[in-house]
Structure formats: C-alpha cells, structure tokens
Design brief:
Elements: E1 7-14, H1 18-31, E2 38-45, H2 49-59, E3 64-69, H3 94-97, E4 104-108, E5 112-114, H4 118-122, E6 131-135, H5 139-149, E7 157-165, H6 166-171, H7 174-185, H8 192-201, E8 205-207, E9 214-215, E10 228-230, H9 247-254, H10 270-280, H11 284-296
Parallel strand pairs: 1-2, 1-4, 2-3, 6-8, 9-10
Antiparallel strand pairs: 4-7, 5-10, 6-7
Helix pairs in contact: 1-2, 7-8
Length: 302
C-alpha cells in the first residue's frame, strides 16, 4: 500500500538537459520504497512535444508528473553561462510550481542520479529553517564565497539537491528576494542561482548529510559511498565527449529510460572532436564578466 502523502519532487529542464532529467527521475523511481507515492513537477523551457512525452513515459504509471511552463522572461536579467542556462533559476519558483497545501518538496538538478530512497531525505529535520542542502566543505572556497557575497558566516551550500519547507519559502518571499539578490550581484553572480539563494537564505538553512549531493569528481567518492552522484560541470554524461567518472552508473539508468536508444551525433568520432573544440573556445559573456570583476578588484583601484 502506498503512503497517502506523495513526495513532491521538482526538476527543471531545457532542451539540452532532457536526457539527464529523464535519467534523474528514473534513478529516483528505481530506488524509492515501493510504498511511497511520488509526484514530479517538471519546469520546462522550450522542449518539444516528443520530449514531453518521453519524460511523461519515464514515470507513468509508477508515479505522476505535471509540467510547469517556465517563463524565462522573468530571469533574463540574471547571468547565464555556456553550462548554466536560464532554466537553472526555475528553482526560485517552487512556491508557484508546487500547489498550496504541500508542506515540503525536494528539488533535484537534472544532471544527477539518486541511489537511495528519497523518502529518507524528505523526513530530514529542518529545525525551523527554510531549506536543507549539502554544504560546500572546502574552507578556502567558503571564505571566498563569504567575502564575495557578504554572507554572515563562511557557510555555503550547493543548490543541486534542496529540501524545502514550502510554507516558510512562501512566507519569507524567497522567490522575490532571490530574484532581487541576483540582480543586485550583477556580474558577481558567478554561480548563478546558487549564489542568489545563498545570499537570500544565509543563516536560514541546515546542512544535509554530505552523501546526498556528491560531485562525481570528488576523489574520495566510491561507487557505494553516496546517495546522490552529481555530474557537475561539463561535459555531461549524456554528451558525446564525456569521459569523466561513474559513467557506468548513469548508463545503468539511461538504459531503463525512454532515452535508452538516443545517442549523440558522432560519425567517425567527429561529434566528439567538434564538442571538445567548442568547449575550448571562451564565451564572450564569460570573458566580459571576468574582465569587469578584475577591473573592480581592490588591487586595480586608485
């Protein structure tokens, strides 16, 4: 018998991340307690009817899914990069995506796999805070984030896996405050939605166990040591030039998904070669942001 209260899970996807979104949901389904009901909310930005059908087929009939149309015009003033698109900011809108009446939701990036029962995560105590997230534990980076963002303490979380108290999120107007923080930071919004949320929530979050969001490039990571394997950065494991760690874990769930037969264009290795060439070319927007930050640094003042 399934539980009466479905676990609410939110993801966001554009056309570049549909394969990853499907695999993330597939991994959740394969590892959840069968007694748990799941309801997925997918914020979509410019994906095709065919991809919508594939995403729906990923979960039905084992779970339910609703699409939420993401209006990117609400975040066009915020920075993006070659890796991070505007859809990353969709997590700001969880208070609109999940209808009133639900007390909590879990937000997941579309470039990770979950290998533990998400019902464990939903029940984690938030101690009266708005958010639970995994903390960045590199002290040097923590200090840099604190100085750059004006945080009250050298604590900074990764936004790829979030446990959210929806009532507090709405009551504290996190959506508007995060949008304002992103606009205020301008080119200092280096890590996009993550920077804005850290500024907005500052001391209003608790640290989840680190196993719930582990970067696959972490040298301490083993195949059995994490609940979530996060394929941060680029390339992604569904892209033609991925040669990073734990590809086999991603492929395991890919083969169970509606994208099992989808392969990137790579005749005679040409696709891989072109992808690597494109990644080596600096983007104009990124170059301009770096130059502006350097010109505004204290050593260049006066």
């Amino acid at each position: 018998m399934r539980s009466m209260a479905p676990i609410q899970i939110v993801l966001a996807v554009d056309r570049r991340h549909v394969t990853g979104c499907s695999v993330t949901m597939q991994s959740v389904l394969e590892n959840v307690n069968p007694a748990s009901a799941l309801h997925f909310h997918v914020a979509v930005d410019g994906i095709s009817a065919r991809d919508r059908a594939r995403l729906m087929a990923t979960v039905v009939p084992r779970a339910t899914l609703e699409f939420w149309e993401f209006d990117r015009s609400r975040v066009l003033h915020l920075t993006r990069s070659r890796i991070i698109s505007h859809s990353a900011y969709a997590r700001f809108f969880v208070g609109e995506i999940v209808p009133p009446g639900e007390s909590r939701c879990i937000y997941l990036d579309s470039d990770l796999i979950v290998e533990r029962d998400v019902s464990e995560l939903r029940g984690f105590p938030l101690d009266g805070r708005t958010l639970g997230a995994v903390e960045n534990l590199w002290a040097e980076e923590q200090a840099e984030h604190q100085a750059r963002l004006g945080l009250s303490a050298p604590r900074y979380f990764n936004s790829g896996v979030l446990l959210i108290d929806l009532e507090r999120w709405r009551a504290r107007d996190v959506m508007r405050r995060a949008l304002d923080a992103g606009a205020r930071l301008g080119h200092d919004l280096i890590l996009h939605d993550q920077d804005a949320l850290n500024c907005t929530l500052d001391a209003d979050w608790v640290a989840l166990p680190s196993a719930w969001n582990v970067a696959v490039f972490n040298p301490a990571l083993t195949g059995e040591s994490a609940a979530v394997f996060h394929y941060m950065g680029a390339p992604k494991p569904w892209e033609v030039d991925y040669d990073g760690p734990f590809a086999e874990k991603f492929v395991k769930y890919l083969r169970l998904s509606p994208y099992a037969e989808v392969r990137p264009w790579n005749p005679a290795g040409l696709g891989r070669m072109l992808a690597r060439m494109r990644r080596r070319l600096p983007s104009l927007g990124g170059t301009l942001r770096v130059l502006e930050r350097r010109l505004r640094s204290p050593r260049n003042a006066g």
